[in-house]
Prior knowledge:
Blueprint lengths: L6 H16 L4 E2 L1 H10 L4 H8 L6 H13 L5 H9 L4 H12 L20 E2 L1 H16 L7 H10 L3 H8 L4 H8 L9
Parallel strand pairs: 1-2
GO molecular function, one term: peptidase activity
Organism: Streptomyces hyderabadensis
GO biological process, one term: proteolysis
Amino acid sequence: MFERFTKDARAVVQGAVGHAEEALAETVEPEHLLLALLDREGSRASFALAALGVGEHRDAVRQALRDARRRAGLSQSETEALAAMGIDVLEVVAKVEAAHGVGAMSPDGRKGGRRRTGHRSFSRGAKEVLEKALRVAVARRDRHIGDEHLLLALALRPGVPAEVLADHGVSHASLTRVLGEGGGRACA
């Protein structure tokens, strides 16, 4: 599948691996793909994000992703659902961090402060994003998978990246409008 990726899309994948390494994560997650997309300049995805106002709010998006990591990767909607059942996630996080240190609930693999080296595999969620990007490209009748397809796939897939994007005014519909319809239909 990677032979169909454009230079920009490959750079996003490589950037996501870099973000996972920097975070000492065991695997590359969808959040790392979004962070790598935020790093890009001069690409279709960066154009779309800038057109939708994310350009000047990149730090806020990064902070929202860090906050989700501290909540063990739970999205805000998952946190609210647990609150409806009487579970205060922020209180749980505070207690765990008081006992084990800041970031103890983070899925970033900071086990004993050891730095993990070597190959990082892609999590199931990250693989789903890559597969969905392929489906988006096919649905839009595009020959290659670009970074814009990765962005569209992140906006389509339920989870922290889609929620953070939506909180900053970026939805699949708004991305489709900015990027143009392509030739096909929306791919769910």
